[in-house]
Amino acid sequence: MNAEDQILDKITSSDYKYGFTTNIETETAPIGLSEDTVKFISAKKEEPQWMLDWRLKAYRHWLTMKEPRWAHVKYPKIDYQDIYYYAAPKRKEGPKSLDEVDPELLDTFNKLGISLDEQKKLAGVAVDAVVDSVSVKTTFKKTLEKHGIIFSSMSDAIKHHPDLVKKYLGTVVPYTDNFFATLNSAVFSDGSFVYIPKGVRCPIELSTYFRINAAKTGQFERTLIVAEDDSYVSYLEGCTAPMRDENQLHAAVVEIVALDNAQVKYSTVQNWYPGDKEGKGGIYNFVTKRGACRGVNSKISWTQVETGSAVTWKYPSCMLIGDNSVGEFYSVAVTNNHQQADTGTKMVHVGKNTKSTIISKGISAGYSNNSYRGLVRVTKRADNARNFSQCDSLLLGDKCGAHTFPYIDTDNKSAIVEHEATTSKISDDQLFYLNQRGIDTEDAIGLIVNGYAKEVIKQLPMEFAVEAQKLLQITLEGSVG
Amino acid sequence: MNNSQQISLKERFEKQFEEHKKNLYKHDTRKVAEYRSQGYDAFRRLGFPTRKLEDWKNTDLKKALETDYKQEFELTHEEVNVEDLFECKVHDFDTEISSLLNGWYVYTDSPLKKLPDGTIMGSLAKAMKEYPDLVDQYYGEAFRLEQNGFTAMNTAFAQDGVFIYVPDNVKVKRPIQLINIINKNENIFIQNRNLVVIGKNAELTMVHCDDSVNHNISFTNSLTEAVIGENAGLDHYKLQNLNNNSSLINSSFFSLEKNSRLKANAITLNGGLIRNNIHVSLNGENGAADVYGVFLLDREQHVDNQVFIDHRMPNCYSNELFKGILDEKSTGVFNGHIMVRKDAQITNAYQNNKNLLLTDEAKMNAKPFLEIYADDVKCSHGATVGQLDKEAMFYLKSRGIDADKARTLLMYAFAAEVIEKISIEPLKVRIDDMVKRRLRGELSVCDRCVLHCSEPEKEIEFDIDLSKI
Amino acid sequence: MLLNIKNLHVEIDGKEIISGLNLGINKGEIHAIMGPNGTGKSTLAYAIAGREGYEVTKGEIIYKGENILNWEPDKRANEGIFLGFQYPVEIPGVSMTNFMRTAINAQREYREQGSISGKDFLARMEEKKKLVEIHTKLTSRSVNEGFSGGEKKKNEIFQMAMLEPTMAVLDETDSGLDIDALKIVANGVNLIKNEENAFLIITHYQRLLDYIVPDFVHVLYDGKIVKSGGKKLAEQLEEQGYEWIKEEFERVS
Question: Are residues A339 and A421 in the same domain?
Answer without folding.
Answer: yes
